[in-house]
Amino acid sequence: MSTLVAQTEQELRRVLADAAASAAAAGELPEAQLPAYTVEIPADRKNGDLAVNAAMVSARAFRKAPRAIAEILQKYLQLDGTCLERAEVAGPGFMNFFLSPAFYGGVVEDILDKGADYGRSDFGAGQKVMVEFVSANPTGPMHMGNARGGALGDCLAAVLDVAGFDVAREFYVNDAGNQIEKFALSLDVRYQQIFKGEEAVILPEDAYHGDDIKEHAKGFAALHGDKYMAEDEAVRREALVAYALPINIDKMHQDMAKYRIVYDKWFHESVLHQGGDVKAVIDLLTEKGLTYEKDGAVWYKNAQVQTDRLLREGKTQEEIDRLELKDDVLVRANGNPTYFAADIAYHRNKFLRGFTTCIDVWGADHHGHVARMKGAMDALGLDGDRLEVVLMQLVRLMKNGETVRMSKRTGKAIQLADLLDEVPVDAARFFFNLREANTQMDFDLGLAIEQSSSNPVYYVQYAHARICSIFRNFEAEGIVWNRDEANLDLLNAPEERELIRLLAAYTGEVVSAATERDPARITRYCQDVAALFHKFYNACRCKVDDKALMHARLCLCAATRTVLQNVLTMLKIDTPESM
Q1: What is the CA radius of gyration of the chain?
Q2: Which of 52, 54, 192, 551 could anchor a disulfide with 201, C-beta 3.0 to 4.6 Å?
Q3: What is the 3-class SS of 19-44, one letter each residue?
Q4: CB within 8 A of 449, min separation 6: which ones?
Q5: What pTM does this model have?
Q6: Across residues 170-199, what is the average pLDDT?
């Protein structure tokens, strides 16, 4: 919440405590402290701006009916010098407080004073948080799941930053293990087919069949000719991967940059193998008695670790048995570590780098992996609860009411690059944050490029541009906005107060979005701000004869522009001044 909102709640709690003390001194209430109570915002503002259940929870302490307690407290309230105008007793003993003009004017002043810093708080107290997202397999192009994960992860990181956390963005590059071996095999077959023909060398069914593999093979052949046909298979495959993998990773960098995502670190899985991290984590688990050998492979006692964790959480053995937990292989019979072993090593590496919390953004199909990884962190003494996973559901592309699966340009499944060629980046980033991560969503390609109020990002940007045009029009008439000439107490129309209350809630919305790991709260919030601004604009003319009111309304316009700009800038979305 903003400083003024927090200050007002503190004032409310202070005047209630003082009223209880005064009532006790007068003998109308027993000498007792008010029990813990809640301060809420009523659904209907006709019932006040803040509602308190202090009297309701005090019946036992004061040995009176709640309504009688509320009426006594109301009698001794001293609201002078606060942002509270009056209080009313309602129903069985609720107390409803109404904000004063000083509060509304103070919110506008606070926004204008803080400017680009409005909304920032120290809620996170500088705790180090890593958000790892996208982390696409580098053996092929990025797809639609990566598009949603990119927007969601980047905006979550931005929300955490504004909420006062020390945030790092990371991309985990899976450049080792089975998928790289399959990548090498696929490239090798396509390279050989160039010189021997497709019938002579068959591409296995489980290999990579994309056109990108063919293009890499052609590029390698153009560079080296048939030189590597005579080489040993291992040498040939190593050379092919050394050629193609950097091209794919560089394309990932380009796609992310186009998507306005800048990572603090691109972490390569190969580093974990080369640096001994994978071996170290297997040795550590072995020392703790959590591995065993079977059929020539090294296994991790996942079932035991997860059972221990679930029992601590209060689950019964019967409930756990129904999960049919299984152990996992860490090292295959051929001596190669599994992806799971590398993933444990990677998450251990994150925590050893000093992050208090590590947040992963994964596809919903990784649901079963969450408990395994949390359990592995427990097993290593790193507290699995410090690892959080945001699971996101699938996206369905729609156009004219029809599902779209293929790119018009390539005739293949739509990739991230195709999407960014077809719709503005602003729309992609905004649309992918319209829904909570755990809900499936339809992405309407037609709506994303539509220039109308039906398009949510256009609607919000238009509100910002409209405010800019208001100031341009005033300047064209020789009227210069002057804060000193404004009387903010005059902002008392329902539409003005409704808008100001929403602007006051911005800092709290950021904190809630950070706490709930839900950046969609912020896109919904700025849509609400745009809607209330348009409502205010239509109901309250800015150009009026009363100069004090005119400048006050211009102050409100400027404050709204600041909040919209801060939100959109945080989400890395443009703030056009004209549309």
Answers
A1: 30
A2: 192
A3: HHHHHHHCCCCCCCCCCCCCEECCCC
A4: 422, 423, 424, 427, 455
A5: 0.91
A6: 95
